[in-house]
């Protein structure tokens, strides 16, 4: 069966097409700037050559239509007809407390996702539009929703509750949900496969570190804690998100700067983090270049970024009573050796020791970085959320 995986955002639609007979990727690409006059589609041909098509795409429907037209275009020869696509797997951002696993999408599921828009006002509407567009264009194909929050629904109340008046939870469902669940689930299972560990017994700390970042503590395949909260703003310092900040400081800033709720949201989500503090860029490659040039603010930015990761790893070692493995993934986790080294240095007391020379020589590949003496394995496992979505989809529609 061929399965199309879609990730529909407010202004973008990313996709991969898989042949699930051998889990091979047929093609991948994405639409950018949906709703803007300069929208375009980028994708890879069978020979790896990249193609860009500029096209007017006012909504996700036109974006999905162009993607499908490209898939059946004889010039590219990906598939001969829409009928070859047996199912579509959708990355859905927020499932709240309603969805703890992937589901076949029905009218009832869409209604539930719509009711959760209040928790994800930017992402859930785009997800819904993508499902609706696909249903019209591929009426024969079953659709599956794979929720970013679902994997974290195993957290216990003491881990996910905030110390706010209880009515904030009972009336408004304000609690910690966590995100990046598909990535944490994929890399945790893959790490156990590589290491020969029993997933149902393993203690793991998964570090999805990139422009957005989160860490999860996983015990026996169940998340016991994760760094993101009600929204993806909580936890680590990220590309443009602040991560943890004293709520009192935010109230102070609102008063001093005359900010409303929208202004504060923009500040902590779009204008903070690595980009806001460094005043250079949200891209760690730019920060590393600035450090090499002697920029002191860039040096402090990276140390703040790395320190927050190390602090949470230490906290999760305590929560788990030790760990079998620490797994790095995501753009920074897979590629930035200095961050991995900082997090794992001076951690011998916890049974963690990495091979620094090996760490400095590898990027974005499945590899064990810890020394033979290290009681805790340290690994890079490149994430593949799309493949996990495709696997979930296949399992539900067979």
Short description:
The protein is α/β, with parallel strands linked by helices and 398 residues long.
Please explain how this structure is put together.
The strands form two sheets. The protein has an eight-stranded mixed beta sheet, sandwiched between helices. Strands 11-10-9-12-14-13 form a six-stranded mixed beta sheet, with helices on both faces. It starts with a strand and ends with a helix. The protein is an alpha/beta fold. 38% of the residues lie in helices and 20% in strands. It is globular.
Question: Structural class of the helices, strands and pairings?
Answer: alpha/beta
Number of helices: 15
Number of strands: 14
Give helix % range: 25-40%
The coarse overall form would be: globular
**Low-confidence spans:** none
Strand order of the largest sheet: 5-4-3-2-1-6-8-7
Report the C-alpha radius of gyration, rounded: 21 Å
Largest sheet: 8 strands, mixed
Provide mean pLDDT, rounded: 96
| Helix/strand order, N-terminal first | EEEEEHEEHHEHHHEEEHHHHHEHHHEEH
Proportion of residues in β-strands: 15-25%
What gap, in angstroms, lies between the N and C termini? 9 Å
List the helices and strands and how they pair.
Layout: E1 2-8, E2 12-19, E3 24-32, E4 40-44, E5 50-54, H1 60-72, E6 85-92, E7 103-104, H2 107-115, H3 124-137, E8 142-147, H4 157-160, H5 167-170, H6 181-195, E9 203-209, E10 213-219, E11 222-226, H7 247-257, H8 261-270, H9 273-278, H10 284-292, H11 296-320, E12 325-329, H12 330-335, H13 337-344, H14 356-361, E13 367-368, E14 377-380, H15 385-397
Parallel strand pairs: 1-6, 6-8, 9-12, 12-14
Antiparallel strand pairs: 1-2, 2-3, 3-4, 4-5, 7-8, 9-10, 10-11, 13-14
Helix pairs in contact: 1-3, 10-11, 11-13
